[in-house]
Amino acid sequence: MSKPILRTYKDSNDLKRMQKLTQAIWKLEPNFHIGDLAWQRYRHVGREDDWDTAILEMDGEPVAWGWIQIPGELICQVHPKFPEVAKDVIDWFDKITKTIEQKVTVLEKETHLISALEDSLFKPSEQKPEVLNKISLDGCPFPVQLPDKFKGRHIKGSEDLTNRVAVHKAAFHKTKVTEESYVNVMNTYPYDSSLDWVIESPNGEFVASCLIWFDEVNKVGLLEPVGTDPRFRRMGLASSVCKLALNALCDKGAKTAVVVCTSSDASELYKSIGFQQIAQTKSFHRLK
Length: 288
Hints:
By secondary structure, the protein is an alpha+beta fold. Helices cover 30% and strands 31% of the residues.
């Protein structure tokens, strides 16, 4: 068997190689969707120095990748057919990080990663898990009823950029998303403006939004992010914009959709649409 070759991240072509691995092992229900990688990489301008990134390849094909969020937190993906490569990712992480405490989060189903972490003396931590939820699109189209004079639509591209960023900022007041970074998102595979949905108020404001990323290979969409302007909450708009986006996703040929949430309110929202919990994350740490 070939020895894995480690390469550091250089450009968007490397992101596509990371996404290629994510697509290849999706049916094993890993912790990431190709949309996760695109959104996390490009939603903030100037974040490039906050991530050390490596891709491990065998015979020219990606078998693992790792991102280190400064100062010392790792997210990674390792092909289950090559569990031994997980140690290479952990060793690289150990070499790069300078903090006393190292943190890693994986999906509870990624047993090959959990075994590697335990062998490397990582211990479970008390970090609140993220919950992965899934829905079949067999029930499409989802019925949607909006308040009077509110309307839903997908964005038209750059002409909606300012309003699209504004509703995201209203929903996530601590966000660092800007018009510049959202342009980067829009220019990244697999972004599709026809899956970037908003609710418009009677005065033309965008007041709720849902972006879905579509993996055409696996016929699955990811909702990320979903948000509502606080002034317009408790009106059913979050549910409505998600359903509109899911209907559009279904029209693309998708069979399922997934969403990750951390709060009980979000869990109840997605449960009301029909999502069901399928897994959650597990966090580990160790002291150097």
